[in-house]
Amino acid sequence: xxxxxxxxxxxxxxxxxxxxxxxxxxxxxxxxxxxxxxxxxxxxxxxxxxxxxxxxxxxxxxxxxxxxxxxxxxxxxxxxxxxxxxxxxxxxxxxxxxxxxxxxxxxxxxxxxxxxxxxxxxxxxxxxxxxxxxxxxxxxxxxxxxxxxxxxxxxxxxxxxxxxxxxxxxxxxxxxxxxxxxxxxxxxxxxxxxxxxxxxxxxxxxxxxxxxxxxxxxxxxxxxxxxxxxxxxxxxxxxxxxxxxxxxxxxxxxxxxxxxxxxxxxxxxxxxxxxxxxxxxxxxxxxxxxxxxxxxxxxxxxxxxxxxxxxxxxxxxxxxxxxxxxxxxxxxxxxxxxxxxxxxxxxxxxxxxxxxxxxxxxxxxxxxxxxxxxxxxxxxxxxxxxxxxxxxxxxx
Amino acid sequence: xxxxxxxxxxxxxxxxxxxxxxxxxxxxxxxxxxxxxxxxxxxxxxxxxxxxxxxxxxxxxxxxxxxxxxxxxxxxxxxxxxxxxxxxxxxxxxxxxxxxxxxxxxxxxxxxxxxxxxxxxxxxxxxxxxxxxxxxxxxxxxxxxxxxxxxxxxxxxxxxxxxxxxxxxxxxxxxxxxxxxxxxxxxxxxxxxxxxxxxxxxxxxxxxxxxxxxxxxxxxxxxxxxxxxxxxxxxxxxxxxxxxxxxxxxxxxxxxxxxxxxxxxxxxxxxxxxxxxxxxxxxxxxxxxxxxxxxxxxxxxxxxxxxxxxxxxxxxxxxxxxxxxxxxxxxxxxxxxxxxxxxxxxxxxxxxxxxxxxxxxxxxxxxxxxxxxxxxxxxxxxxxxxxxxxxxxxxx
Lengths: 396, 396
What we know:
Two copies of one chain form a homodimer. By secondary structure, chain A is of the alpha+beta class.
């Protein structure tokens, strides 16, 4: 099996991933796939280079680098090319036939990028490589699960320092900046990979008080008005007030993988309804941790969460008050928003070794957001929490 | 003229932009354009919402919001729709004919996003809206120039605090984290908008010592190895050593616009070659500031910079040593990497009110990167510096 130029000790891991990818290609009836997005290059190489990976049913994958990336000359399966137009020539030189069907990443490449790659194979039918790769990445390898667990441990280390970050009279944004520093010093790489074009965010968000009810145009469960019309999300720069809550939903990102974890603090005092809702969020998580077994439809998790919220008379605050998110969780891995989306209309079954973030949250008017989010691995014994950290509503 | 739901005082500014966009549409022979990317929505609205803007030659633009974004009911020209498929129906309801040619953003939307919009107009020819919008955004309005100047002032305020950020024995990454905090406290929004898919970076980079010579797969003038294979760019986590330089190329981003500014510091002492190269960078900037008049081909700037470097015997260090960037600057605005790219093969003429970042840099082996980057506005009197801050090689 060929290997890319970095991390030679990842050979068994990459072989496992290649196998998973080829299985998904076979299921899609697709013999050839050309990948170019950084996420999928990272998945199949363990590192980032500029170039392409060609995966063909009957051959080892081939890595093509374009400048400034360059492979050492003697690395089997690794080639340096000037431009992607040289890939069909390379195939012909190898005596291979050009693919009749080629998978390209519809949901990961810009239109112009994809059209360029499509033109390399003018006679081929083009199918969606993004769904094949998302299928392969849907369940994680043991190595990946440990990466996410490690990420969660770093996140927990960072969250432990939140009360120290707070100084009297701080705004939500000032608190966020101190937490960002703590995350970065703990090793957070400072760049969030997310699928699609609907997530513009740095390291996460801090939502305090009534700002929890401000809707944002982005795909986040809680919005926040932000401080500038160019980035209307998250902290709004107002002083944190006694009697309100501060929800931290900072994303990890310490090692190429993400964990997603939310905890909530309050300032001085907090009213009973908020405490009740926060405890309800924890009760929902405990319930989902047990029922989320392989084979259970994802929608059952959403339905169960809503049912518990309803039983406790908290439905009107569930996942937002003025405007509501329609999901309570999402897959997570290299990207923050992987498959599956945990929502009512997704009947997709849970699979062993899926990693999902579950975030049943409530917005209590004039108090703020409450609730807990953990990142879990699906196992035959229920969910394994990868973001272990005290969940109680805690004083700042 | 219709207006979107935010910032009503931006009406004259938005009208000016709409005029510029319509001019570029006319030049491209295109009567209809449908925009969906956040950058272009921001450009034509002064804010971000989820939805679409339809620009037609003979009509006022129309703003369509999809949930969770929502326009107030009575705002002329603003409509709430459930999905983009309702746009052709809206056109028919208005008695308008469906466009025969529609411009969509080839370089700003994912393939799947664009294909969905294309399917709304099955009989229309589709042309590239990204190039039309890039053409309109190529020169800035006075309002935009002041936004970039304001951004540069905040950046300068932040850079003034760099020596205070440094503590003996720090790594490049630790210094970067303290500078990021200073930038954020100064108002940096913490999210970098860049065109294409080849820039994965948080707030900028700090490059110390030999790390300046590590190539990165991204489109940055200086690379850096980074600290993790998932993000091979920038600071590499090594302790900053006496006798080496530390180059800060942090991006602004305080108000929806970017300024780009590089300054260089050294620890304890620095060798003569590095000082000479740093002064050469400044001499190049002084020279370009005078010659960069409207009408001058962009390539002349690159050629002149290289010529000066060559005259001083510094060519082998120019824009990298082991691997070299092929550009010395780039347009800048809402995105970090706008048109034009300042490189040898770009004969595009400079235009009045273009904003460009110029970054003639050198990499001196065993010392590090040196040089200065400023963001400028092109005027009939030469370049107007929007990032005013002392340029001398300074002690940390």
